[in-house]
Write a structure and sequence with these properties.
By secondary structure, this protein is of the alpha/beta class. 22% of the residues lie in helices and 19% in strands. The protein contains nine helices and 14 strands. The chain has a six-stranded mixed beta sheet, sandwiched between helices. Helix 7 links the parallel strand 12 and strand 13. The longest helix is centred in the C-terminal third of the chain and has 21 residues. It is rod-shaped. The chain starts with 8 loop residues before the first helix and ends in an 8-residue tail after the last helix.
């Protein structure tokens, strides 16, 4: 390769010492003033030796924090859907040799495409749902009685557990994978002049345009679909517990409201059964009055088949936490606190928790599962009890001839 004429001989000797690692030769070279003018114009070459050069390493991409992830999880969406416009009808007359007056042969236009909501198991939130959807238009009719093609249907993928509401009323509950709901019907295609042929009018000139599609404004609301829901006050260790029993990786920190959106983790058993456990953000006193996160996440508990009350055993009077949690759930929806549940006493690795455990068992009739999500102490007992709740749910759904929730 020929060397560029921009650099002098002394400059190329400096480049050679940089490539060969000869630092001693590099330090002995004193470039001239004219050489520096040419050297500054080169952006990718440094005048210092390799030993003294500053290393510019590529910065590591930081993981998104929980607050940044909130914009990716959307459980409310207001959308406007418009069905496709119908195609125009055609007005023409048939004409060929020896048949000059063949009569009208204008075809009808095609129907507009529908806008359909379809449940996709791979979609986890409403973040990918746009605010406006318009269906595909139908094609216009042609001559020789050729009808226009219908517009293709437009499908909107939504996650399981999506409620479709219009004017505050529920019009559809999409809970099963593959379930569909026609949000807006496409308009009918226009009629060609062949349609208006009659004994009274043998040469109609009339052709109608296509009708506009249906237009609606819908509210989509997502309620997390999971078998079990972790319910507790902020900083009770729900996210740490979900990390301990599943492969989910919610954010964990030593301050309240670390979790700002629900996370779903899958607990897998040896017989290939999978139990979905949802980490619900912390509930505070007055949540049923929309305090704190309030209604934004209380509704995610409605779809859980059974609950896991997670108590901070190191706090004073953990039994008061349980009473407060049940009260908030019952005030939000009657009968929500009486669903099949288990009581989990977390943070048993602390000294205060050891003292509060016998006091809690004296005041609570239900079984208490003491564990430590950080150290993994007694997590196996929780997994066994979780499987018992899941088997009871499957048996109950089979008796009622219902389709159980499968992951």
């Amino acid at each position: 390769m020929l060397r560029s004429k921009v650099l002098s001989r002394r400059a190329w000797s400096l480049v050679d010492c940089l490539l060969l690692g000869r630092q001693d030769a590099c330090s002995s070279i004193k470039p001239r003033t004219s050489f520096q003018d040419h050297w500054i114009s080169l952006k990718n070459i440094s005048t210092s030796c390799a030993h003294c050069a500053k290393r510019h390493g590529l910065g590591k991409n930081r993981d998104l924090s929980e607050k940044k992830l909130t914009r990716h999880f959307v459980d409310h969406r207001r959308i406007r859907v418009c069905g496709g416009q119908g195609g125009k009808g055609n007005s023409c007359f048939h004409s060929e040799p020896r048949k000059e007056y063949g009569g009208p042969d204008g075809g009808d236009g095609g129907d507009g495409g529908d806008v359909i909501l379809k449940v996709d198991k791979q979609v986890k939130s409403l973040a990918s749902v746009l605010t406006i959807y318009r269906g595909h238009e139908g094609s216009s009719g042609g001559n020789k009685n050729c009808f226009g093609a219908n517009g293709a249907n437009m499908y909107i993928s939504v996650p399981p557990g999506t409620l479709v509401m219009e004017d505050g009323k529920i019009v559809a509950d999409l809970s099963q994978p593959g379930e569909e709901y026609v949000a807006a019907f496409g308009g009918a295609g226009g009629k060609g002049n062949r349609f208006f042929l009659s004994n009274e009018n043998r040469a109609p000139m009339t052709a109608t345009p296509g009708e506009p599609g249906q237009e609606r404004v819908l509210q989509l609301e997502l309620k997390t679909m999971a078998h079990a829901g972790l319910v507790g006050f902020p900083n009770a260790g729900k996210s740490s517990l979900l990390r301990a029993i599943s492969n989910a990786t919610p954010a964990v920190a030593a301050y309240p409201f670390t979790t700002l959106n629900p996370h779903v983790g899958i607990v897998r058993y040896q017989d290939h059964e999978q139990v979905a456990v949802a980490d619900i953000p912390g509930i505070i006193s007055g949540a049923h009055q929309n305090r704190g996160l309030g209604f934004a996440f209380l509704r995610h508990i409605e779809r859980c088949r059974f609950l896991l009350y997670v108590l901070d055993m190191s706090a004073a009077q953990p039994w008061a936490q349980l009473q407060e949690l049940k009260y908030e759930l019952e005030q939000y929806e009657e009968g929500l606190s009486t669903r099949p549940h288990a009581i989990v006493g977390n943070k048993m690795d602390l000294h205060e928790s050891q003292e509060n455990l016998p006091l809690l068992r004296q005041r609570v009739k239900e079984k208490v599962i003491p564990l430590s999500a950080i150290t993994g102490q007694n997590v196996e007992e929780l997994l066994l009890h979780l499987r018992e709740l899941y088997d009871s749910y499957i048996e109950k759904e089979s008796v009622q001839m219902k389709q159980p929730l499968q992951w």
